[in-house]
């Protein structure tokens, strides 16, 4: 225990009093108080807009917009008008120009931004150079005059903050989707072009509202530095905005105090403190990554030891949402493709690195990486002697695990890549590729190790497994017999194959429940424990085919489809009937994960498109179709025909827009078209390759992965 004498207490109190006086003395003056309020309001406005500038990589646009205000302000000053109105007009004109020039395809958007940036800045300088009265005003315009903030300026800032809050809240979902993929935003019906315009308007508002405080040259620092610093402390957009506003506010206080005592320019000092906060955050983040958060707390607590603390409290680092022991969180999706041949050999293609891993029989540690050849016909590695030789007839995936049907057993392979979606943000994880184990398809509880012998062989022509879906608690594998096996998902994450029960019917986990469509046509929503739940009014005769979208679970029926969705806390079902009676029903759906546009084969001479959002079916006639998929609304239908030709078809008109002779000959095996937000992947058993297709670039073959096995079965994971 630290004991202080009376003299020591007086000395400490005196020092503390002087420190408090040094800190609060500047704010006893009215104009500094107005400057403080102005800086705090500007910090909040810049946090709302600057977060999106940092997240979307729009820094160059923000800098150009800040400099593009000069012509409007110069003209307003010459005419004796309001400088803020002049700045707003100039920024709006530049935003419109950027939007107009960016629509062309001859050059990138940053070229248009650069041209307008130089043009607007040059125009402003020319206007300034023609007047002799701009010498002092120009300095204030460029570097700001936060100490000259008036009461009426504070009301302008309050109004700007209110508008920014409304735009940020109403446009949040659209801005998030636009940040990841404009096509995804379009698929979700979020109108990416108006959303981009609204985002540019939000940035314009922040710049116009802030330039009077810190000036056009320094507003960029306050717009970028606090959000960039906040990104080191959180990856959730709302939290980043809050932290950025806090850092901006503290920078305002610190800048005003320093400028008061050091006699420096207040606006420039505020911007400098904000930039300094970024570098401090970057340094702390680097130290935290090396020694962990516990180490940072321990280092920070060292100076407190001399103040009488005998023990440093241990702070445990909270695991991020969706974290699994042994996994590494990544900054972007780690997509992979799992392929298998009919003999039971399994390979995993890492789409980020291009490497190929062999999943060998035996323990999970028997996974080894192999190189691949990206050129068609390239040399392939020799087959592994450790591969299983149990006939594999079907393969499905739930986003992380691949479930391979071998005879009457289900083999589970961990692809080592998955995404945890929390709505407004996502977590991406990477782990070791490994085989988890196998279980008999007719069993409901026994667990077998890797390489288990198959039982109850799949009937001739059967696939064994036709679908796999999971959430945090349960994974469901749908069999071609119409039954489903539920696996314990946490156990799978831990490397153990453990089943919960078998359900007679197509069972899909959804909204913390289990949705079941059985052979009688009944659609039922059950609890996790399997207890009978609410039977839906909509029926699904002869259910075959299922899918999970952002708008609910879809079951294929003899007379159309049933969509089961959660609305206002209740789970309801709705029928989407076929447009006319048909014998070519949809029995197996394909789609981009999360997309509300589904595709399916329609007999031998057509394909189906089901739009869940519009609740409509559309049939496109095409002879010899063997596989179909699409990235969603606005994207072409990708149809592979038996002759090995890949077709791009306009879903609205049904006309072919492009084609490419993808396979060397007639299709062999079980062809699959897997689609993600960027590329499509198609397996070629004859050539022992997997083709990566840029479906938005005239079906261009971007890469070709050569393998040592015939990839007759394929699933994509990591999405």
**How many β strands by DSSP?**
35
| Strand numbers in spatial order across the main sheet | 5-4-3-2-35
Q: Work out the radius of gyration.
A: 31 Å
How large is the count of helical segments? 15
Structural class: alpha+beta
Shape, please?
elongated
Plain-language structure description:
There is one protein chain. It is built from 15 helices and 35 strands. It is α+β, with helices and mostly antiparallel strands. The strands form 9 sheets. The protein has a 5-stranded antiparallel sheet with strand order 5-4-3-2-35, with no helix packed on it. Helix 2 packs across helix 12 (219-231), helix 3 packs parallel to helix 6 (109-129) and helix 4 runs parallel beside helix 6 (109-129). It is elongated and about 80 Å long.
Keywords for this entry:
719 residues; alpha+beta; 5-stranded antiparallel β-sheet; 15 helices; elongated
Concise summary:
The chain is of the alpha+beta class and 719 residues long. Helix content is 35%, strand content 26%. The longest helix is centred in the middle third of the chain and has 36 residues, at 266-301.
List the helices and strands and how they pair.
Elements (H helix, E strand, L loop, with lengths): L5 H19 L5 H27 L2 H9 L2 H10 L3 H19 L7 H21 L5 H9 L7 H20 L1 H9 L1 H6 L4 H23 L4 H13 L5 H26 L3 H36 L26 E3 L5 E5 L5 E5 L5 E4 L7 E4 L21 E6 L3 E6 L2 E6 L2 E5 L4 E5 L3 E7 L24 E6 L3 E6 L4 E5 H5 L5 E5 L2 E5 L2 E5 L5 E4 L7 E2 L10 E4 L2 E6 L2 E8 L2 E8 L19 E5 L4 E6 L4 E6 L3 E6 L6 E5 L3 E5 L6 E6 L11 E3 L4 E5 L4 E6 L5 E7 L6 E5 L2
Antiparallel strand pairs: 1-10, 2-3, 2-35, 3-4, 4-5, 6-7, 7-8, 8-11, 9-10, 12-13, 13-14, 14-15, 16-17, 17-18, 18-19, 20-21, 21-22, 22-23, 24-25, 25-26, 27-28, 28-29, 29-30, 31-32, 32-33, 33-34
Helix pairs in contact: 2-8, 2-11, 2-12, 2-13, 3-6, 3-12, 4-5, 4-6, 5-6, 5-11, 7-11, 8-11, 9-11, 11-12, 12-13, 12-14, 13-14
């Amino acid at each position: 225990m630290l004991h202080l004498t009376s003299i020591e207490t007086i000395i400490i109190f005196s020092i503390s009093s002087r420190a408090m006086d040094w800190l609060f003395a500047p704010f006893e003056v009215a104009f500094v108080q107005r400057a403080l309020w102005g800086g705090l309001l500007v910090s909040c406005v810049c946090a709302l807009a600057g977060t999106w500038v940092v997240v979307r990589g729009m820094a160059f646009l923000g800098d150009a917009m800040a400099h593009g205000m000069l012509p409007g302000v110069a003209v307003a000053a010459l005419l004796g008008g309001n400088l803020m109105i002049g700045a707003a007009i100039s920024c709006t004109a530049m935003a419109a120009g950027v939007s107009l020039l960016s629509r062309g395809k001859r050059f990138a958007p940053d070229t248009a931004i650069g041209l307008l940036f130089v043009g607007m800045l040059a125009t402003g300088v020319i206007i300034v150079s023609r007047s002799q009265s701009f010498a002092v005003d120009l300095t204030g315009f460029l570097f700001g005059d936060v100490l000259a903030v008036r009461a009426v300026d504070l009301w302008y800032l309050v109004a700007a903050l209110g508008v920014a809050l409304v735009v940020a809240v109403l446009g949040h979902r659209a801005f998030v989707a636009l940040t990841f993929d404009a096509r995804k935003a379009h698929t979700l019906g979020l109108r990416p072009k108006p959303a981009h315009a609204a985002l540019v308007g939000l940035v314009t508002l922040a710049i116009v509202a802030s330039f009077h405080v810190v000036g056009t040259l320094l507003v960029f620092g306050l717009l970028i530095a606090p959000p960039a610093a906040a990104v080191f402390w959180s990856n959730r957009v709302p939290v980043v905005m809050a932290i950025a506003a806090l850092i901006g506010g503290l920078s305002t206080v610190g800048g005003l105090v320093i400028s008061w005592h050091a006699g420096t320019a207040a606006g420039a000092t505020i911007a400098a403190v904000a930039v300094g906060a970024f570098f401090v955050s970057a340094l702390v983040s680097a130290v935290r990554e090396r020694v962990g958060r516990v180490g940072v707390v321990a280092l920070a607590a060292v100076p407190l030891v001399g103040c009488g603390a005998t023990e440093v409290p241990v702070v445990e680092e909270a695991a991020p949402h969706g974290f699994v022991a042994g996994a590494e969180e990544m900054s972007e999706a780690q997509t992979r493709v799992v392929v298998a041949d009919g003999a039971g050999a399994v390979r995993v293609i890492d789409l980020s690195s291009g490497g190929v891993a062999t999943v060998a029989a035996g323990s999970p540690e028997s996974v080894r990486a192999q190189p691949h050849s990206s050129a068609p016909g390239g040399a392939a590695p020799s087959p592994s002697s450790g591969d299983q030789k149990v006939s594999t007839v079907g393969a499905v995936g739930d986003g992380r695990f691949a479930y391979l049907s071998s005879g009457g057993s289900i083999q589970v392979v961990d692809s080592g890549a998955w995404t945890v979606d929390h709505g407004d943000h996502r977590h991406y994880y990477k782990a070791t590729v490994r085989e988890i184990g196998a279980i008999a398809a007719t069993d409901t509880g026994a667990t077998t190790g890797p390489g288990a012998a198959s039982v109850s062989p799949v009937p001739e022509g059967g696939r064994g497994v036709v679908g796999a879906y999971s959430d945090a608690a349960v994974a469901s594998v749908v069999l071609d017999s119409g039954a489903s096996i539920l696996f314990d998902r946490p156990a799978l994450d831990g490397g153990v194959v453990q089943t919960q029960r078998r359900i007679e019917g197509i069972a899909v986990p959804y909204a913390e429940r289990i949705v079941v469509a059985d052979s009688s046509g009944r659609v039922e929503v059950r609890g996790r424990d399997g207890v009978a739940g609410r039977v839906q009014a909509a029926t699904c005769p002869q259910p075959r085919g299922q899918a999970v979208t952002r708008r609910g679970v879809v079951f294929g029926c003899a007379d159309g489809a049933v969509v089961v969705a959660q609305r206002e806390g209740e789970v309801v079902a709705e029928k989407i009937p076929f447009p006319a009676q048909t014998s070519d029903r949809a029995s197996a759906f394909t789609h981009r994960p999360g997309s509300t546009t589904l595709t399916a084969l329609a007999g031998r001479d057509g394909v189906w498109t089901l739009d869940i959002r519009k609740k409509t079916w559309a049939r496109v006639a095409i002879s010899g179709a063997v596989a179909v998929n699409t990235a969603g609304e606005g994207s072409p239908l990708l149809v592979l025909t038996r002759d090995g030709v890949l077709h791009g078809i306009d879903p609205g008109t049904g006309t072919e827009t492009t084609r490419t002779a993808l396979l060397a000959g007639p299709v062999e095996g079980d062809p699959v078209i897997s689609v993600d937000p960027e590329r499509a992947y198609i397996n070629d058993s004859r050539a022992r390759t997997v083709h990566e297709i840029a479906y938005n670039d005239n079906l261009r073959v971007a890469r070709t992965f050569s393998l040592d096995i015939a990839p007759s079965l394929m699933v994509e994971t990591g999405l």
